[in-house]
Write a structure and sequence with these properties.
CATH superfamily of one domain: P-loop containing nucleotide triphosphate hydrolases
Distance between the termini: 54 Å
Radius of gyration: 26 Å
Largest sheet: 7 strands, parallel
Helix content: 40-55%
CATH topology of one domain: Rossmann fold
Shape: globular
CATH architecture of one domain: 3-Layer(aba) Sandwich
Strand order of the largest sheet: 3-4-2-5-11-1-12
């Protein structure tokens, strides 16, 4: 094995690194990998030398490569070599946590590359905070619940977490969602970190799982893998974290790879959101009132608290649920806008009063800093809401509280300044980055003016390996029965993709009364990588999912059928409604492109190797068939037959 930090080829003082890298990559794809049983692929080699130029010139490149081209090997090889050359890790940003697990799973691409090339790759995961158990939430719940899955998690928390006398030498990493695969998604939300947690003032902070895992991945030498959401959170918070004396979420990197990079725009929007929790402002201002402050400040705080309560009541009264989304749509009335303006003005005035209170030296600097930062955050978020057409907003509610979420509509200017001005290589990799090999739409939405691009097709013989059937839905009951028959005829070994969790649950309600000669697995019942592993190993089985349209990699006979239960249009939630509002033809410019992209991604789950084969079944209504049949057929790898 080649030790960490050493290049897998020699570079002398008179050598050019990229010349030697090019020679090595040529040896890998022409000689070493074929000798290890890997197929020589012209598409893979073409993409490799396109990436070499992007790394050499520190450019952004859109590398669109169809299923089976081996694009992951290509970007991994360049990212690792360049990281060792520059002495800084590469960051690989994936669409979500599921894709992270696909990269690092046993038998995954990283392990295959290590074995084939004799490399010892230092790869570490930087997972989103929601992927870690929160002791502040777990401990009190464990003391009052009978839920065995929660108690089992609590029992597995290491002793040092509760032993305040334990030395840091005894600390070990713990708390990753993957360590508790038996916990359902709904239960995990009760014990995992959430945006309402104030980590900076938490007594468990230095013993929390996310803190210990963060310290671990920061020391990676080759690769750090994270989600798009986490990368964007790092970008938006790095300066504020530095001001607070904290390290940024991620270290400086030599390059960044965005796997499934077409999904980056929404992650950027999401990372810039402002979340106004009803309880949070009350807590901050009540804490402010508890300090030795002047009467002017106290009266202003009381006014803000009364307005705030009235405002959230109005928001709830003017909110309506949206199918397929947890974003509750809000109708902005004149009264809501008026109160928002008064709140904004009062918070601005309170910030001025805080300056005078701080000068009295009756409030600790630490408390002044926390109050000031939250009020500035609150004020700026309100300013986005009040500016015409700049913000997207919605309400999120649970059993405990309500949260108003405000998101900027456009992020390209911020991305251009904060991300793509770094002067390092950025690689976008996916099978679906362009519209007919035109990358303009994606590039402009991300603020990228100058870029390289390449597009290579899949090497698979789809005509021989794949059949695609179209089906017309006459009624929901009849559709479920037909899908059930399709599953039985195929003896399971199928992935059923739904457009939303609600649609999956409707199928589940019907399916629970049926007898199946195979295992039925549903996304959300347990940790997702465990569900995928069970599907792959416990043959025959059926995997029902609303999220696994991209990234799922199940080669072999475990998966020989993909059923698309309905055309996957975007939800009618505030984010997509904002997109529709700002286009001349919403159906053509928002709905159809999103749906077609999802179908292309879903179809890509079936054929993963030259040996794979199977059938795709796509369901739609008669009206949808009339409107979209030609559009769908234009992007399919084989002709669709109607059943």
């Amino acid at each position: 094995m080649i030790r960490n930090n050493s290049l897998p080829f020699t570079v002398t003082k008179v050598d050019n690194f990229f010349d030697r890298l090019g020679d090595y990559v040529g040896d890998v794809f022409y000689d070493i990998l074929p000798e290890k049983g890997y197929e020589l692929r012209d598409e893979q080699i073409y993409m490799a030398f396109q990436l070499e130029q992007a790394f050499k010139n520190k450019r952004t490149i859109f590398a669109e490569a169809g299923v089976g081209t081996g694009k992951t090997f290509v970007y991994l090889l360049y990212a690792i070599c360049y990281a060792r050359y520059r002495g800084k890790p590469a960051i690989i940003s994936c669409a979500d946590e599921t894709l992270i697990e696909q990269l690092v799973k046993k038998g995954g691409d990283i392990e295959k590359l290590e074995e084939a090339l004799g490399l010892n790759i230092d790869v570490r995961l930087a997972k989103a905070r929601e992927q870690y158990v929160c002791i502040k939430k777990l401990d009190p719940i464990a003391n009052r619940t009978d839920d065995k899955s929660i108690l089992q998690v609590h029992d597995q928390i290491p002793d040092f977490v509760f032993d305040t006398s334990a030395s840091m030498k005894s600390f070990e990493r713990y708390g990753d969602r993957k360590e508790y695969p038996w916990v359902s998604n709904a239960t995990w939300e009760k014990i995992a970190w959430d945006p309402l947690q104030q980590c900076s003032t938490c007594e468990w902070r230095h013993r929390s799982g996310q803190t210990l895992n963060r310290d671990y991945y920061r020391h990676a030498t080759d690769i750090i893998i994270c989600s798009h959401d986490f990368y964007m959170e790092h970008v938006w918070t790095k300066e504020s974290r530095k001001r607070e004396g904290q390290l940024p979420l991620l270290p400086e990197s030599s390059s960044v790879v965005f796997d499934e990079g077409h999904l980056l725009e929404f992650a950027a929007q999401k990372g810039l959101t402002y979340r106004f929790n009803f309880e949070a402002l009350n807590k901050v201002l009540t804490g402010y009132m508890g300090q030795d402050v002047r009467e002017e400040s106290l009266l202003l705080i009381e006014d803000i608290l009364l307005l705030h309560e009235e405002w959230f009541d109005l928001l709830s009264d003017n909110a309506s649920a949206v199918e397929g989304s947890n974003r509750i749509e809000i109708s902005l009335t004149e009264n809501i806008i008026d109160i928002a303006q008064r709140l904004h003005d009062n918070v601005q005035q309170l910030l001025e009063e805080l300056v005078f209170d701080a000068e009295l030296f009756t409030i600790e600097d630490y408390h002044v800093k926390i109050i000031e930062e939250y009020l500035e955050f609150f004020s700026y978020g309100l300013s986005i809401l009040l500016k015409d057409d700049e913000g997207i907003f919605w309400l999120e509610e649970n059993d405990m509280t309500s949260t108003l979420v405000i998101m900027p509509r456009l992020v390209e200017d911020v991305l251009k300044k904060e991300v793509f001005s770094q002067g390092i290589p950025f690689v976008f990799s996916s099978a679906t980055l362009s519209r007919g090999k035109d990358f303009t739409y994606l590039a402009s939405s991300l603020g990228i003016n100058r870029y390289d691009s390449c597009s290579v097709a899949s090497p698979f013989d789809y005509e021989q390996k794949m059949k695609i059937n179209g089906h017309i839905e006459s009624s929901l009951q009849e559709k479920w029965e037909n899908i059930g028959n399709q599953l039985v005829d195929n003896n399971g070994k199928a992935l059923v993709l739904f457009s939303s969790i609600e649609e999956m649950n409707l199928f589940r309600q019907w399916a629970i009364d049926q007898e199946w000669p195979f295992t039925m697995l549903y996304e959300g019942d347990q940790e997702i990588s465990k569900t995928v592993k069970d599907f792959q190993n416990d043959q025959p089985a059926v995997l029902c999912s609303y999220n696994l349209w991209e990234g799922l990699d199940i080669p072999g006979e475990a998966l020989t059928k993909v059923i698309i239960s309905s055309l996957p249009f975007p939800p009618k939630d505030p984010v997509f409604q904002a997109k529709r509002k700002h286009t001349e033809h919403p159906e053509q410019e928002v709905d159809a492109p999103y749906m077609v992209l999802r179908i292309r991604q879903g179809i890509g789950r079936l054929i993963r190797t030259n040996e794979d084969f199977g059938t795709i079944d796509i369901w739609m209504t008669e009206k949808e068939s009339e409107m979209y049949q030609k559009t769908i057929e234009s992007v399919l790898p084989v002709e669709m037959e109607w059943k």
